[in-house]
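Appendix B. One record, verbatim.
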Amino acid sequence: MMLQGMTARYLIHGCYRVKSANTILVHAAAGGVGLIACQWAKHLGAKGNLHKSRNHAYSLKSPLQIGSLTDKIVNFRVLLN
């Protein structure tokens, strides 16, 4: 958990400083780093677009959980078919 949090911090503060006016896209958001990054960006006031695969759909089924993490969910497999 600690390494995942450090990775999320590096992405949100080190690579690009996320601000409240930003919109971010998090790939594999159902994983550990993705979940932390989505929560952290939402806390900073950024709008989040979450990308997940069908394999990890089970971990983001709750509408309350989805609404607390992101503003929009993107599934590219559905878009491409």
